[in-house]
## 1
Amino acid sequence: MSRILKPNSQQRVFQILKHMCKLGIAKGGEKVVNLKDGKLELLTNKNSILVLVDYQPSMFKSVSSGDKTTIKNAAIGAAKAASILEVPVVLSSINPKAMGEFIPEITRIFPNQEVFARTIPSFDAFEDERVWNAVKKLGRKKVVVSGLWTSMCFAYTALHALKEDFEVYGLIDALVTRLQMHINMGSREYCRLELSR
C-alpha cells in the first residue's frame, strides 16, 4: 500500500491554485497553458534519471517509521523499473567502511554501474563533485530522488537539485525516518518550497 501524504482538502486546493498561478492558468483566465512547457511533460526514460542515495545496511538499523522490508523493496522495485525502462541511474553512498556497501539487491541490477562513495562527509549527495557531474552529464532536468533517510539523504539532495533548477520528484515509499512526523514535516516543507518557486 502506498504511503501518500494527503494534506487536508483546503490545503490541497490552495496548493493546486498556487501551482496553476505559477503555470499561468489561473491569472484571470486570459492566459492558457503552454503545453510545450517541459514541467508539464510526464516522466519518461528520455527526460528523467533516478538517484538512489545511501541504501546501506547500517543506515537501515534505526528505521522505525515503517517496515524495513517494504521500504527496501520499494527502492529495489524502483531500481528494477529504471533498468527495464532504461532510465539512467546514479547511485551514491556515504562512508561505506562504517555504513556498509550499497545494498547488493540494487547494485546487482546495475553490475557495470559505479556506486559513488562520497568523499565529502555530507548527506547531500550532490555536494560530491563526481555524483553531481554524473547527474549533469546526463543532461536531464527531471530527477527522481530517493535517499533512505527523509530528513537527511533525501532532503538535502532534493533541495540541492531544486536550487540548481532541476525538477525533483520524491520516491516517498522508499524513504524512512525515526518518526513518522519527520516524513510528514519533510514532505510538506519540500512541497512548500517547490510551490513557492
## 2
Amino acid sequence: MSNDKIIAVTGATGSQGGGVVNILKKTPGWRVRAITRNPESAAAQKLAADGSVEVVRADFDDEASLAKAFEGVAAVFAVTNWWESLFSGKSQWESGDIEERHGMNLARAAAATPTLEHYLWSTQPSSKRALPAGTLETPHMDYKANVDARIKAELPELASKTTYLYFGYYPQNMAFFPLIKPFEYVSLLLSVLHVLLSSRKD
C-alpha cells in the first residue's frame, strides 16, 4: 500500500487548480485527488486519463459532499470562482455572497477532516478592509478576504494549519480577454504619427 500523502485540489480543471495538479502529480510522495462537480466532463476525463490523478465528485454548495471528498487527505488546495457567478448573470455582490458561502463550506469540510495537516486557501487582500469606509470596493477580492477573517474567528484550529495564498495577475488573461490583449506599440505610434502629419498637411 502506498505511503504517499493525498492532496485534494478544488478547481482542478481551472487555471489555478490545474496548475497545482500538473505539478503535484509529478511530485514524489504525493497523490492528487481532483475535486470537480462533473467527473464526466471532458476536462475531468483528461485529468483522469493517465491514471495518476483520482477524480472525485463534490459540489461547493454541498458541504457533506466536500467532507466526503476530503476523507483521508493530508492537504487541501481550495479555490473558489467569483467570476463564474458573475458571468451567469449575478451582480458583483451576489457573486461575492456565493463565493463566501462556498469558501466557508470548503473550510468547514476541511476542518472536519481528521487527517488534514495543511489547508491552502487561495485568497486576495480586501481593499474594503484596508481603506477608509466607502473609498473602494473590489467584490472579487473583498469576499475572499471575508473568508480569511471567518476562518481565523470561527475555525481557529483550521487557521493554525492554513496558508493564505495571494496569487497575482495571470499572464494568460492577456490572451483571453480582448480589452487587455497586448498590441504592437510601434505600429500604433506610426499610425498616430501618420494621422498627425496628414492633418498638418491639410
## 3
Amino acid sequence: MTLLYGGDIRMYRTFCGADGNNAYLLGGLCPWLTLESIIIDAPLHPEGVLGDTRDTTVMAVLITHQYEDHWEGLPAIKAHTGAPVGMHERDIAGVPFSPDFTVDDDAVVHADSIKLRIFHTSGHTLGSVCFWFPGIFLPEIPCTREAQEKAGPRRYDGDTREYHPETLHAS
C-alpha cells in the first residue's frame, strides 16, 4: 500500500495480480463520520487492497474497463466488502458478471467527503472511464488538472470527440 495523496482524502495504491495492475482505495477524512471508501479496479490477488479496507466501509467498487486484469479479483472483493460494483454500460457485455449499477459521463459517486466525478473516456475500450477528484485523475497516476491537460486525450478506438479539459470541475 502506497499513500499517493493525503490532502482532502486518503488515496492508496496497491499492486495486484501477475500483471502488476493497480487497485486504488480512496477514503474520506471526516473524523466525525464513519470512514467510507471507494475501491477502483479489482485485479487478481486483491489481498493488499482488502487489508487496506479494514478501517473503512467500502461504499462502491468501480471498474475502469472490461479487460479481465481489471476485474478478475472482483469475487474476492465483493465477498469481503459486499459493496456494489459499478462500470460503464458499454463494457458490460465484455464481462461475466452483472454490475450493480452503471456509471456514465459526469456522474458522481459519494463516500464520506469524497465526490468522485466519472468521465467516460472511450478509447482503451468503448466503456472506459476515468475518475476525478480535485488534484487527482485516475486511472492515470494522480496528477494535477494542469498535468492532465498537458497529457491530452488518449483515444484508441477511432472516437474523434474532442477532449475538453475545462470540463474537469468540482461539483
